[in-house]
Amino acid sequence: VILTTPQGTTFNHNLAHELTLKKHIIIICGHYEGFDERIRTLADIEISIGDFVLTGGEMAAIPVIDSVLRLIPGVLGKQESFMEESFYDGLLEYPQYTRPQIWRGKSVPDVLISGHHANIKKWKLEQSIQQTKKFREDLLKK
What we know:
The chain is of the alpha/beta class. Helix content is 31%, strand content 14%.
């Protein structure tokens, strides 16, 4: 039983993964002024999705539900789909590119169109490390 509350443990990928191991999850959501304090005793864990206030806990429950569901085998087309995404291995995801190959004078990196899978994998890891260092250095310290 989860209670969405500003006082709770900050929700993250590791907690989402832990929740996938549960057979059932109930999320209690406060609304407007919150909830009757006595209901807190029903919760096994209190979760916060960040340092801000919403009009209701239902909106906080949505990212919790979605991030947990997508880690359950069979929910995504391929289980590997989430293994390269941000936070899975403690890093931010590498930059993404789509078609066209050249857009507004900027090209897709040559390595991504090379067909050389080992070099592409190496590039993705290097880019993930660079992205994490640039935007979320705190993740590298963990």
